[in-house]
Amino acid sequence: MKFLVCKKQHGEGCDYTIGCGMNFNFIEAKSAEDAVEKIIYPYGHDEASSLEGESALKEIFIVQADYVISIDVNKVAQEVANQRKQQALGLQKQKEITEFKKLKAKYNL
Questions:
Q1: CA–CA separation, 4 vs 25, rounded Å?
Q2: Do residues 55 and 76 share a domain?
Q3: pLDDT digits (tens, 9 = 90+) for 5-36
Q4: Backbone angles phi, psi at 23, to 5 degrees
Q5: Residue span of the structural domain in which 92 resides
Q6: Strand, coil or helix: 14
Q7: For residues 84 and 90, what is the distance between their CA atoms, to the nearest angstrom?
Q8: Closest Cα partner for 60 from 21, 16, 92?
Q9: How many Cβ atoms sit within 10 Å of the Cβ of residue 72?
Q10: Are residues 109 and 91 part of one domain?
Q11: How far out from the chain centre does Cα 25 lie?
Q12: Predicted structure pTM score
């Protein structure tokens, strides 16, 4: 199973404006309990837990990610840029046609 995990440490980390005390990532686990185990003891029970030490976690949120959508942001951004370019060309064409009609009427062509 795939889970989305949000971990927040005590305090604000290095700077509250950029959220460096927070971490979001996906993990694979057999169950929600297994996910909790992996988060609290990422290196095993013999090592320090994520709830101890200088960067101890204050909050943990786990969301089961049954349905995950991954978006190719670069592709979508290019599509948006192309759409904006086409809109601008269309507006320019309309402006030129309007000007052409005015000149044609002015000179009785």
A1: 6
A2: no
A3: 999 988 766 666 666 788 899 999 999 999 99
A4: -145, 130
A5: 71-109
A6: coil
A7: 10
A8: 21
A9: 9
A10: yes
A11: 12
A12: 0.61
